[in-house]
Specification:
- By secondary structure, this protein is α/β, with parallel strands linked by helices.
- The protein folds into two domains: 149 residues, Rossmann fold, CATH 3.40.50; 187 residues, Dehydroquinate synthase-like, alpha domain, CATH 1.20.1090.
- Helix content is 49%, strand content 12%.
- It has 13 helices and eight strands.
- Strands 1-8-5-4-2-3 form a six-stranded parallel β-sheet, with helices on both faces. Strands 6-7 form a two-stranded antiparallel sheet.
- It is globular, with a radius of gyration of 20 Å.
- The relative contact order is 0.11.
- Keywords: Cytoplasm, Lipid biosynthesis, Lipid metabolism, Metal-binding, NAD, NADP, Oxidoreductase, Phospholipid biosynthesis, Phospholipid metabolism, Zinc.
- It holds the Pfam family Fe-ADH_2.
- Its cofactor is Zn(2+).
- InterPro entries: G1PDH, Glycerol_DH.
Amino acid sequence: MKVEFPTHLICEPKAFELLPCSEIVETLAERRVTVITGNGPTRQIGEQVTTALKLQPSQLSALYCKDNMLRTVDQIEMEAQKGFAEIIIGVGGGKVLDVSKVVGTRMNLPVILVPTALSSDAICSPVASIRVDQIKSLSIEVKMPWAVVIDLDIVARSPARLFSSGIGDLLSNKTALADWKLAHKVKNEKMNAFACMIANNSTDAFLNKLTQKNIDSKILLQVASESLIMSGIAMAVAGTSRPCSGSEHLISHALDYYCGGKALHGEQVAIGVLISEYLQGYQNSEYSLRQYYKRLGLPLHYKKLGYTKEEICLAVQKAPTIRNRYTILNETDLTTKKINLVLDEIFPPSP
């Protein structure tokens, strides 16, 4: 199996200022480029990128992505074809990046991703989440980006909640890997040791930096960026999202499908992590991820995200039906009575 990796990576403060002298500019010269952004602040950031890349109006078309619905993907692809696009640039958050990856994959074009927030591992992954309707979403296999450009000054200005969401996604590597090892042991599911190592080390690199005294916030931001990129590479090496997506992601997807998806992806995954690590036996161990939540601004209770106990119970029960993926949930008593007891242990009722 041939594994594709990004050819170019720029991840540092004032990254846009480095673009004019980069090999990326040489590749884009005289080629037709379609830039996909959101219709808010990311639109202006997209203009900064195109200026830094020395793109001429004659070779440039700008498209705006309002959501990650399948019909939006179809529309943007059609517009990109009309503009005879030869390269796709996605500038924005997770939804814009996912749409850009799908359009680039469909058209078999190189994709440059320019994240404006670290809200998930979508910044460099072979998977895109696209909504079919307001309830159902699909995980679509896509080509890895050709280049990733992260201006740390830009992502530092994004809302803190988006950063916390991205870290929730990153921490889930731990519970996902435990699930994958379980599936390997019980179901003889094939594992990739290199993918496991990359996914595990990407999370450890961030946590090791987080626990250092007097750590500079920009250094932490850079490590978080690199760790999320490595998570995407782990998935590419594995040929599956297994290294970074287990029972905790199934719970999040079930919340989307059955309970209206009331919070950010990484926030819901973070709640899933607390449930998964309890079922895996890690809640009270030194390896518990709960110990980092308060410092990272992650939710310690589902009520913080607007969910009821009944909704969380339903999501846990429905999670194994989301996809054919063996996890700790397959070895758990999923009766309402048992789940409620588990939830009371993880999320003690207020006195």
